[in-house]
């Protein structure tokens, strides 16, 4: 059944695949952009047919959100800044929290049935390293620069649950918590997770920190968003989206083993933990990875599997498809 869906952050990596999935299911999709001049470029990037339109809205402004949510049955809120690229060194907590509140409030005024919020497994870090984590787990981290991203995602999601609990007449809320997101890049505007594979392919990661991630494929993540949007059983639920864990050296080995000459610049050298810790005070991005050194996350997606029969594809396939897309785009 065709219904109307607003997807925030329409030019983003996750949003692009969510838009594709929703259009493929016959929904009418409206996507927010900070600059409407990007609309045609986004449409070409997605290469989709169907009822897709764009509206201007910004997480830091009230303008545009009522127009964006008007007539929508659902909202999928993927937009949130990360402390890299244009937001490097900036406050990301304020726009993450304020943007979430704006979207929810506009959704309520518009009579939206359900909001699906893209959170992160960074909001489900257990107190003990390597302890199992599921939807009952919440991150509780100190207010320090190295924890800026997980704190922003945690506080924004907690705000969302607190807000909707005060609205018994809706909208409903469902949150999806992806792990490290891999999968084919759509253009040169790369997400930080995809940039990791690019750094390896281009030789700009000459030594590999002893860290890793649980992987979710962006194509499967889009499916989970679509299921969480409409399934009655998903209302009021959190869903972790995570598959196999890979260390950086395992990702590098996959690239070297399966790409042949195209992975000639991929390094297999290990970077000792003490070197990362010594350099961290002088490098903001290294400082943020220190808590992950040597930690193998144990994230469970059993809730999504039980509810929807959902699971993500093998992590090696996602990493390889990411690399192949970068090569085909001339980005590696």
Structure description:
With 332 residues, the protein is of the alpha/beta class. It has one domain (4-190, 216-244, 297-313): Rossmann fold. Helix content is 39%, strand content 17%. It has twelve helices and 14 strands. It has helices at residues 13-24, 39-46, 65-69, 93-110, 148-165, 192-201, 218-230, 248-259, 273-279, 284-289, 302-308, 315-328; strands at 4-8, 28-33, 52-56, 74-77, 114-118, 132-133, 172-178, 180-182, 208-209, 212-217, 238-241, 245-247, 270-271, 298-299. The strands form four sheets. The chain has a seven-stranded parallel β-sheet with strand order 3-2-1-4-5-7-11, sandwiched between helices. Strands 8-10-12 form a three-stranded mixed β-sheet. The protein has a two-stranded parallel sheet with strand order 6-14. Strand 1, helix 1 (13-24) and strand 2 form a beta-alpha-beta unit. Helix 6 (192-201) packs across helix 12. The longest helix is centred in the first third of the chain and has 18 residues, at 93-110. The radius of gyration is 19 Å and the shape is globular. Belongs to the NAD(P)-dependent epimerase/dehydratase family. Dihydroflavonol-4-reductase subfamily. GO terms for molecular function: dihydroflavanol 4-reductase activity. Pfam families: Epimerase. This is Dihydroflavonol-4-reductase. Keywords: Oxidoreductase.
């Amino acid at each position: 059944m065709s219904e109307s869906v607003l997807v925030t952050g329409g030019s983003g990596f996750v949003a692009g695949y969510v838009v594709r999935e929703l259009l493929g299911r016959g929904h009418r999709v409206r996507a927010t952009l900070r600059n409407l001049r990007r609309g045609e470029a986004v449409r070409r990037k997605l290469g989709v047919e169907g009822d897709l339109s764009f509206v201007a809205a910004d997480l830091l402004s009230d303008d545009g959100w009522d127009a964006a949510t008007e007539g929508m049955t659902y909202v999928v809120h993927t937009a949130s800044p990360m402390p890299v690229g244009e937001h490097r060194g900036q406050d990301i907590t304020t726009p993450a929290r304020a943007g979430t509140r704006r979207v929810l409030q506009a959704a309520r005024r518009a009579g939206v049935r359900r909001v699906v919020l893209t959170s992160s497994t960074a909001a489900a870090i257990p107190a003990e390293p390597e302890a199992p984590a599921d939807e009952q787990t919440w991150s509780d981290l100190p207010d320090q620069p190295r924890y800026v991203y997980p704190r922003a995602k945690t506080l924004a999601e907690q705000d969302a649950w607190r807000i909707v609990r005060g609205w018994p007449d809706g909208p409903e809320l469902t949150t999806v918590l992806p792990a490290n997101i891999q999968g084919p890049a759509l253009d040169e505007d790369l997400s930080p997770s995809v940039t990791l594979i690019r750094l390896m392919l281009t030789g700009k990661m000459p030594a590999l920190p002893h860290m890793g991630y649980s992987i979710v494929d962006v194509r499967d993540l889009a499916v989970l968003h679509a299921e969480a949007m409409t399934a009655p059983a998903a209302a009021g639920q959190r869903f972790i989206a995570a598959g196999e864990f890979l260390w950086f050296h395992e990702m590098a080995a996959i690239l070297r083993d399966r790409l042949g000459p195209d992975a000639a610049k991929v390094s297999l050298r290990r970077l000792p933990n003490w070197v990362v810790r010594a350099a961290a005070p002088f490098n903001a991005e290294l400082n943020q990875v220190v808590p992950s050194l040597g930690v193998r996350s144990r994230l469970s997606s059993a809730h999504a599997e039980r509810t929807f029969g959902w699971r993500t594809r093998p992590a090696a396939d996602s990493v390889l498809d990411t690399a192949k897309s970068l090569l085909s785009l001339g980005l590696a």
